[in-house]
Each structure stands twice: as C-alpha cells, then as structure tokens.
Amino acid sequence: MATPRQELSAAEWEIMQVIWNSSNPLAVRDVLEQAYPQAEKAYTTVQTLMNILVAKGFLKRKKNGMVNYYSPTVSREKVLHKSLLTVAGRMFEGSFGAMASFLVNTAPLRPEEIQELKKLLDEQTGGPRK
User: Fold this and answer.
1) According to CATH, what is the number of the domain 10-72?
2) pLDDT over 70, % of the chain
3) Using H for helix, E for strand and C for coil, what is the string for the chain?
4) pTM of the predicted protein model
5) Sequence ranges of the chain with CATH classification 1.10.10.10
C-alpha cells in the first residue's frame, strides 16, 4: 500500500530542491553540505527530515555499504502542481486566474518577466490579439 503524500514543510522543500537538482542519488552528508554550507542545520536534523521524506513517499533510499543514498520518487513539477492546486483551492476558491492576478499585482515585474508572461498567455490563447 502506497504512503499518502502530504504537503512539504519549508525544511523539506530545501532538501528536495537539492535532491531534484542532482542527477545522482545523494547521501545525507551531500545534502547537508549543499543545502546548509554554513552548518545551519545539524547532520541528524537533515537525516531525520530525509527519513520523513521517505515515509511520506517523496524519496526512496538505497543502501550502498554503510551509506544510504536518496533519490526522488516524484518530480518537482508534480509536487509544485499539487501544491499550487492546494493554494488555489484554499485561498482563491479554486481559481488559478485569481491567483495569477494576485501574484502579478503583488510585486513589480521585470520587463523580461512581463514578456515571458505575455508569451505564455499567447500560447494559451492561440496567439496575440489584434
């Protein structure tokens, strides 16, 4: 029976970002050094978080000698999609348009970001309107 996935905490996101950015499975020490280069978290804290991610079904663990190596079981895109669905449902009555409007109006966008958004909207609607 598959373990049901839950939302990721902020610390779990930090760890998953490192895992997703690697093309190879990583040991706890690797994640610790990449995510917390100034020793912001203890080895045992990162190990505990990674074991929680295994229990939640976000990571898989494989032992090689004395070391456990971790790799993702789900893509960043799938986790982002589910998280955004949750946010849209909870805070914007399920409306991605309302959520996008809020985000666009919350902080100023750089010109290149505006161009990218226009391009994405054109692709969604079949081209620029005249």
Assistant:
1) 1.10.10.10
2) 93
3) CCCCCCCCCHHHHHHHHHHHHCCCCECHHHHHHHHCCCCCCCHHHHHHHHHHHHHHCCEEEEEECCEEEEEECCCHHHHHHHHHHHHHHHHCCCCHHHHHHHHHHHCCCCHHHHHHHHHHHHHHHCCCCC
4) 0.78
5) 10-72
